[in-house]
Amino acid sequence: MPVESLGAPGRAAAPGAADGKHGLLEIRGLSIEVAATGTPLVRGVDLAVAPGEVHGLVGETGAGKSLTAWSVLGLLPDGLRRTAGSIMLDGTDLATCDEDHLRAIRGRDVAMIVQNPRTALVPTMTVGDQLALVHRARTGSSRKQSRAAAVETLDSVRLPDAARRCHDYPHQLSGGQAQRVVIAMALLDRPRLLIADEATTGLDVTVQAEVLDLLREQVTEAGVALLLITHDLGVVANYADTTTAMFAGEVVETGSTRALFDAPAHPYLRGLLAAADLEAHTSRSRRAVSGAPPDLAARPPGCQFAFRCPWQAEACLSGVPLTPVGPGHTARCARTAELDRLEAEQDERQT
Protein backbone atom coordinates (compact mmCIF):
# COMPACT_ATOMS: atom_id res chain seq x y z
CA MET A 1 0.00 0.00 0.00
CA PRO A 2 1.21 3.56 -0.54
CA VAL A 3 3.13 5.22 2.28
CA GLU A 4 0.32 7.70 2.97
CA SER A 5 -2.12 4.93 3.87
CA LEU A 6 0.18 3.74 6.65
CA GLY A 7 -0.24 6.98 8.50
CA ALA A 8 3.09 8.41 7.39
CA PRO A 9 3.43 12.17 7.69
CA GLY A 10 3.57 12.57 3.92
CA ARG A 11 6.33 15.23 4.14
CA ALA A 12 8.79 15.99 1.42
CA ALA A 13 12.02 14.23 2.28
CA ALA A 14 14.52 16.27 4.26
CA PRO A 15 17.74 17.07 2.41
CA GLY A 16 20.29 14.31 2.65
CA ALA A 17 21.22 11.19 0.76
CA ALA A 18 18.04 11.24 -1.30
CA ASP A 19 18.76 14.55 -3.01
CA GLY A 20 22.54 14.75 -2.84
CA LYS A 21 22.63 17.78 -0.51
CA HIS A 22 25.15 18.11 2.30
CA GLY A 23 24.44 15.88 5.27
CA LEU A 24 25.62 16.20 8.84
CA LEU A 25 26.81 12.60 8.53
CA GLU A 26 28.24 11.47 5.19
CA ILE A 27 29.62 7.94 4.87
CA ARG A 28 31.40 7.21 1.61
CA GLY A 29 32.78 3.87 0.44
CA LEU A 30 32.82 2.28 3.90
CA SER A 31 34.22 -1.25 3.96
CA ILE A 32 34.71 -3.45 7.04
CA GLU A 33 36.30 -6.88 7.26
CA VAL A 34 37.31 -9.58 9.72
CA ALA A 35 40.93 -8.76 10.48
CA ALA A 36 42.13 -12.35 10.83
CA THR A 37 40.60 -13.70 7.62
CA GLY A 38 39.90 -10.69 5.42
CA THR A 39 36.23 -11.69 5.15
CA PRO A 40 34.35 -8.59 3.92
CA LEU A 41 31.32 -7.80 6.09
CA VAL A 42 30.50 -4.33 4.73
CA ARG A 43 31.43 -3.25 1.19
CA GLY A 44 31.43 0.24 -0.28
CA VAL A 45 28.56 1.68 1.76
CA ASP A 46 27.45 5.25 1.01
CA LEU A 47 24.96 6.89 3.36
CA ALA A 48 24.11 10.46 4.38
CA VAL A 49 21.89 11.92 7.09
CA ALA A 50 21.02 15.62 7.18
CA PRO A 51 19.94 17.77 10.14
CA GLY A 52 16.19 17.46 10.62
CA GLU A 53 16.06 14.14 8.75
CA VAL A 54 15.12 10.61 9.78
CA HIS A 55 17.08 8.13 7.66
CA GLY A 56 15.86 4.55 7.94
CA LEU A 57 18.39 1.74 7.53
CA VAL A 58 16.75 -1.63 6.87
CA GLY A 59 17.76 -5.17 6.03
CA GLU A 60 17.78 -8.63 7.53
CA THR A 61 20.08 -9.74 10.34
CA GLY A 62 23.70 -9.76 9.18
CA ALA A 63 23.16 -7.15 6.46
CA GLY A 64 25.74 -4.83 8.04
CA LYS A 65 23.39 -2.18 9.45
CA SER A 66 24.73 -2.13 12.99
CA LEU A 67 28.37 -2.42 11.90
CA THR A 68 27.87 0.65 9.73
CA ALA A 69 26.40 2.54 12.68
CA TRP A 70 29.01 1.47 15.24
CA SER A 71 31.79 2.48 12.84
CA VAL A 72 30.60 6.09 13.16
CA LEU A 73 31.52 6.01 16.86
CA GLY A 74 34.74 4.10 16.26
CA LEU A 75 33.36 1.18 18.25
CA LEU A 76 33.65 -1.79 15.93
CA PRO A 77 33.72 -5.15 17.75
CA ASP A 78 37.10 -6.69 18.47
CA GLY A 79 38.53 -8.51 15.48
CA LEU A 80 36.95 -6.22 12.88
CA ARG A 81 38.56 -3.33 11.06
CA ARG A 82 37.64 -0.61 8.61
CA THR A 83 39.55 -1.11 5.38
CA ALA A 84 38.25 1.74 3.25
CA GLY A 85 35.97 4.73 3.22
CA SER A 86 35.40 8.02 5.00
CA ILE A 87 32.97 8.89 7.80
CA MET A 88 32.44 12.64 7.64
CA LEU A 89 30.70 14.36 10.55
CA ASP A 90 30.15 18.00 9.68
CA GLY A 91 33.34 18.01 7.61
CA THR A 92 35.57 16.01 9.98
CA ASP A 93 36.58 12.50 8.92
CA LEU A 94 35.98 10.36 12.00
CA ALA A 95 37.73 7.45 10.29
CA THR A 96 41.04 9.28 10.70
CA CYS A 97 40.47 10.59 14.23
CA ASP A 98 42.34 9.22 17.24
CA GLU A 99 40.59 7.67 20.24
CA ASP A 100 40.72 10.88 22.30
CA HIS A 101 38.83 12.79 19.61
CA LEU A 102 36.29 10.00 19.18
CA ARG A 103 35.74 9.82 22.92
CA ALA A 104 35.05 13.55 22.94
CA ILE A 105 32.38 13.38 20.25
CA ARG A 106 30.56 10.39 21.79
CA GLY A 107 27.55 11.71 23.62
CA ARG A 108 28.38 15.32 22.83
CA ASP A 109 27.92 15.21 19.05
CA VAL A 110 26.77 11.65 18.39
CA ALA A 111 24.70 9.48 20.73
CA MET A 112 23.57 5.88 20.39
CA ILE A 113 20.29 4.39 21.61
CA VAL A 114 20.54 0.61 21.79
CA GLN A 115 17.95 -2.15 21.55
CA ASN A 116 18.06 -3.40 25.14
CA PRO A 117 18.00 -0.50 27.62
CA ARG A 118 18.88 -2.85 30.48
CA THR A 119 22.36 -3.35 29.03
CA ALA A 120 22.91 0.42 28.89
CA LEU A 121 22.03 1.04 32.54
CA VAL A 122 24.03 0.12 35.65
CA PRO A 123 21.77 -2.09 37.79
CA THR A 124 23.32 -0.99 41.11
CA MET A 125 22.89 2.77 40.57
CA THR A 126 19.73 4.83 40.65
CA VAL A 127 18.55 6.36 37.42
CA GLY A 128 19.19 9.88 38.69
CA ASP A 129 22.72 9.09 39.82
CA GLN A 130 23.56 7.59 36.43
CA LEU A 131 22.32 10.57 34.46
CA ALA A 132 23.96 13.04 36.85
CA LEU A 133 27.26 11.16 36.65
CA VAL A 134 27.22 11.25 32.85
CA HIS A 135 26.31 14.95 32.86
CA ARG A 136 29.11 15.85 35.28
CA ALA A 137 31.67 13.87 33.30
CA ARG A 138 30.75 15.65 30.08
CA THR A 139 30.20 19.19 31.36
CA GLY A 140 32.13 19.54 34.63
CA SER A 141 28.97 20.84 36.32
CA SER A 142 28.34 20.65 40.06
CA ARG A 143 26.45 17.75 41.61
CA LYS A 144 23.42 19.96 42.14
CA GLN A 145 23.45 21.23 38.56
CA SER A 146 23.86 17.74 37.16
CA ARG A 147 21.05 16.39 39.30
CA ALA A 148 18.77 19.18 38.08
CA ALA A 149 19.78 18.42 34.49
CA ALA A 150 18.92 14.75 35.04
CA VAL A 151 15.42 15.59 36.27
CA GLU A 152 14.89 18.12 33.48
CA THR A 153 15.95 15.68 30.78
CA LEU A 154 13.82 12.85 32.18
CA ASP A 155 10.89 15.24 32.23
CA SER A 156 11.59 16.20 28.60
CA VAL A 157 11.23 12.55 27.53
CA ARG A 158 7.93 12.46 29.42
CA LEU A 159 8.91 9.97 32.09
CA PRO A 160 6.03 10.31 34.58
CA ASP A 161 7.00 11.85 37.94
CA ALA A 162 10.59 12.36 36.82
CA ALA A 163 11.89 13.73 40.13
CA ARG A 164 10.69 10.66 42.02
CA ARG A 165 11.84 8.26 39.32
CA CYS A 166 15.37 9.57 39.74
CA HIS A 167 15.52 7.49 42.93
CA ASP A 168 14.49 4.27 41.16
CA TYR A 169 16.86 1.52 40.10
CA PRO A 170 16.65 0.14 36.54
CA HIS A 171 14.89 -3.05 37.64
CA GLN A 172 12.03 -0.93 39.01
CA LEU A 173 11.24 0.45 35.55
CA SER A 174 9.15 -1.06 32.78
CA GLY A 175 10.77 -1.65 29.40
CA GLY A 176 9.30 1.53 27.99
CA GLN A 177 10.36 3.57 31.02
CA ALA A 178 13.89 2.18 30.84
CA GLN A 179 14.10 3.10 27.16
CA ARG A 180 13.01 6.65 27.99
CA VAL A 181 15.85 6.83 30.51
CA VAL A 182 18.32 5.68 27.86
CA ILE A 183 16.97 8.30 25.45
CA ALA A 184 17.30 10.93 28.17
CA MET A 185 20.92 9.91 28.68
CA ALA A 186 21.52 10.23 24.94
CA LEU A 187 19.97 13.71 24.91
CA LEU A 188 21.86 15.11 27.92
CA ASP A 189 24.40 16.96 25.78
CA ARG A 190 21.97 17.79 22.97
CA PRO A 191 23.83 15.75 20.32
CA ARG A 192 23.45 16.63 16.66
CA LEU A 193 23.23 13.01 15.50
CA LEU A 194 21.21 10.24 17.13
CA ILE A 195 21.67 6.62 16.12
CA ALA A 196 18.78 4.38 17.18
CA ASP A 197 19.80 0.73 16.70
CA GLU A 198 16.62 -1.38 16.92
CA ALA A 199 15.66 0.94 19.78
CA THR A 200 12.00 -0.11 19.90
CA THR A 201 12.38 -3.84 19.30
CA GLY A 202 10.64 -5.82 22.04
CA LEU A 203 8.40 -2.96 23.16
CA ASP A 204 4.65 -3.28 22.82
CA VAL A 205 3.05 -1.39 19.95
CA THR A 206 1.76 1.52 22.05
CA VAL A 207 5.07 2.10 23.83
CA GLN A 208 6.93 1.71 20.53
CA ALA A 209 4.86 4.49 18.99
CA GLU A 210 5.43 6.74 22.01
CA VAL A 211 9.21 6.25 21.83
CA LEU A 212 9.30 6.85 18.07
CA ASP A 213 7.15 9.96 18.43
CA LEU A 214 9.61 11.19 21.04
CA LEU A 215 12.55 10.67 18.68
CA ARG A 216 10.67 12.33 15.83
CA GLU A 217 10.15 15.40 18.08
CA GLN A 218 13.91 15.73 18.50
CA VAL A 219 14.25 15.76 14.73
CA THR A 220 11.49 18.26 13.96
CA GLU A 221 11.95 20.59 16.94
CA ALA A 222 15.70 20.46 17.60
CA GLY A 223 16.94 19.70 14.08
CA VAL A 224 18.64 16.49 15.17
CA ALA A 225 19.75 14.03 12.47
CA LEU A 226 18.40 10.54 13.23
CA LEU A 227 19.73 7.29 11.78
CA LEU A 228 16.95 4.79 12.49
CA ILE A 229 18.09 1.17 12.22
CA THR A 230 15.25 -1.33 12.22
CA HIS A 231 13.96 -4.53 10.66
CA ASP A 232 10.38 -3.20 10.96
CA LEU A 233 9.37 -1.73 7.62
CA GLY A 234 6.16 -0.35 9.10
CA VAL A 235 8.25 1.82 11.42
CA VAL A 236 10.29 3.09 8.47
CA ALA A 237 7.14 3.80 6.45
CA ASN A 238 5.71 5.94 9.23
CA TYR A 239 8.80 7.77 10.48
CA ALA A 240 11.65 7.86 7.93
CA ASP A 241 12.12 10.58 5.33
CA THR A 242 14.81 8.61 3.51
CA THR A 243 15.45 4.87 3.48
CA THR A 244 18.47 2.72 2.65
CA ALA A 245 18.16 -1.06 2.25
CA MET A 246 21.21 -3.27 2.84
CA PHE A 247 21.82 -6.88 1.89
CA ALA A 248 24.97 -8.92 2.56
CA GLY A 249 26.93 -5.84 3.58
CA GLU A 250 26.02 -3.75 0.54
CA VAL A 251 23.52 -0.99 -0.14
CA VAL A 252 21.00 -2.38 -2.64
CA GLU A 253 18.57 0.55 -2.76
CA THR A 254 18.31 4.06 -1.37
CA GLY A 255 16.06 7.06 -1.84
CA SER A 256 13.06 8.83 -0.36
CA THR A 257 10.87 6.51 1.67
CA ARG A 258 7.91 7.39 -0.52
CA ALA A 259 9.78 6.36 -3.68
CA LEU A 260 11.09 3.11 -2.22
CA PHE A 261 7.73 2.00 -0.86
CA ASP A 262 5.64 3.08 -3.84
CA ALA A 263 8.07 1.89 -6.54
CA PRO A 264 10.73 -0.46 -5.11
CA ALA A 265 13.42 -1.03 -7.73
CA HIS A 266 15.32 -3.99 -6.26
CA PRO A 267 13.88 -7.53 -5.96
CA TYR A 268 15.13 -7.80 -2.37
CA LEU A 269 13.21 -4.75 -1.17
CA ARG A 270 10.19 -5.84 -3.20
CA GLY A 271 10.28 -9.16 -1.37
CA LEU A 272 10.59 -7.51 2.04
CA LEU A 273 7.64 -5.24 1.31
CA ALA A 274 5.59 -8.17 0.06
CA ALA A 275 6.31 -10.10 3.24
CA ALA A 276 5.25 -7.11 5.35
CA ASP A 277 2.21 -6.40 3.12
CA LEU A 278 3.43 -2.83 2.59
CA GLU A 279 3.44 -2.68 -1.21
CA ALA A 280 1.55 -0.18 -3.28
CA HIS A 281 0.65 -2.90 -5.79
CA THR A 282 1.03 -6.53 -4.79
CA SER A 283 2.06 -8.95 -7.52
CA ARG A 284 1.10 -12.60 -7.22
CA SER A 285 4.63 -13.54 -8.27
CA ARG A 286 6.15 -11.31 -5.62
CA ARG A 287 6.46 -13.16 -2.35
CA ALA A 288 8.51 -13.05 0.81
CA VAL A 289 12.24 -13.45 0.31
CA SER A 290 13.19 -17.11 0.67
CA GLY A 291 16.54 -18.71 1.33
CA ALA A 292 19.46 -17.52 3.44
CA PRO A 293 22.07 -14.78 2.99
CA PRO A 294 25.29 -15.76 1.18
CA ASP A 295 28.37 -16.99 2.99
CA LEU A 296 30.34 -13.75 3.30
CA ALA A 297 33.59 -15.71 3.42
CA ALA A 298 32.84 -17.13 -0.04
CA ARG A 299 30.81 -14.45 -1.76
CA PRO A 300 29.31 -15.27 -5.16
CA PRO A 301 30.36 -13.02 -8.05
CA GLY A 302 28.17 -10.12 -9.07
CA CYS A 303 24.87 -9.36 -7.37
CA GLN A 304 24.82 -10.88 -3.88
CA PHE A 305 21.06 -11.41 -4.11
CA ALA A 306 21.13 -13.17 -7.49
CA PHE A 307 21.02 -16.72 -6.13
CA ARG A 308 17.76 -15.90 -4.28
CA CYS A 309 16.25 -13.84 -7.08
CA PRO A 310 13.60 -15.27 -9.45
CA TRP A 311 14.79 -12.89 -12.19
CA GLN A 312 18.48 -13.83 -12.18
CA ALA A 313 20.19 -13.35 -15.57
CA GLU A 314 23.74 -13.50 -16.88
CA ALA A 315 24.13 -9.75 -16.36
CA CYS A 316 23.60 -10.28 -12.63
CA LEU A 317 26.73 -12.41 -12.30
CA SER A 318 29.15 -9.55 -12.94
CA GLY A 319 29.62 -6.34 -10.96
CA VAL A 320 26.33 -4.46 -10.50
CA PRO A 321 26.72 -0.81 -9.43
CA LEU A 322 24.12 1.41 -7.80
CA THR A 323 22.23 2.96 -10.72
CA PRO A 324 19.85 5.95 -10.70
CA VAL A 325 16.23 4.90 -11.24
CA GLY A 326 14.58 8.20 -10.34
CA PRO A 327 15.27 11.54 -8.65
CA GLY A 328 17.51 10.73 -5.68
CA HIS A 329 16.59 7.04 -6.02
CA THR A 330 19.22 4.39 -6.82
CA ALA A 331 19.19 0.58 -6.91
CA ARG A 332 21.82 -2.13 -7.36
CA CYS A 333 20.01 -4.28 -9.94
CA ALA A 334 20.87 -5.11 -13.54
CA ARG A 335 17.20 -5.70 -14.41
CA THR A 336 15.44 -2.84 -12.64
CA ALA A 337 13.84 -1.56 -15.84
CA GLU A 338 12.41 -5.03 -16.56
CA LEU A 339 11.03 -5.99 -13.15
CA ASP A 340 7.45 -4.80 -13.64
CA ARG A 341 7.22 -6.60 -16.99
CA LEU A 342 8.78 -9.79 -15.60
CA GLU A 343 6.34 -9.83 -12.69
CA ALA A 344 3.37 -9.16 -14.95
CA GLU A 345 4.36 -12.04 -17.23
CA GLN A 346 4.80 -14.33 -14.25
CA ASP A 347 1.40 -13.31 -12.88
CA GLU A 348 -0.19 -14.05 -16.24
CA ARG A 349 1.34 -17.52 -16.31
CA GLN A 350 -0.02 -18.22 -12.83
CA THR A 351 -3.62 -17.28 -13.69
Describe the 3D structure.
The protein is an alpha/beta fold. The protein is 33% helix and 20% strand. The chain folds into 2 domains: 1-109 and 191-292, 3-Layer(aba) Sandwich (Rossmann fold), CATH 3.40.50; 119-189, no CATH class. The chain has 12 helices and 12 strands. An 8-stranded mixed β-sheet has the order 6-7-8-3-9-10-12-11, with helices on both faces. It has a 4-stranded antiparallel β-sheet with strand order 2-1-4-5, covered by helices on one side. Helix 8 (205-222) links the parallel strand 7 (193-197) and strand 8 (225-229). Helix 4 (127-139) packs across helix 5 (143-156). The two termini are 22 Å apart. Residues 1-20 have low confidence and may be disordered.
